[in-house]
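Quick one:
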Amino acid sequence: MQIRIEPHTLQRAEERGTNAQEIEDVLRTGTDVPAKGSRRAKAKVYPFGQVRLGKYYEQKRVEVIYTVEGETIVTVTVYVFYGRWEE
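Output:
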């Protein structure tokens, strides 16, 4: 299936601390999570081990919200959460 990352998603990715490569990885290998309406979502936890906005975080969780149009996954937005999740 093709993946189309919308410009809005890339803007949010930059603001929130992720990138196009992680978005594609989440869509290909992430876990399905609930989403509202007809939208879908996948999430994946990555090692982070850095300071963000003055606080140290071990991991980050990237969630991609998307729709499917024919044979193409079209991103809607991306969220990034920082913290620690159990594997």
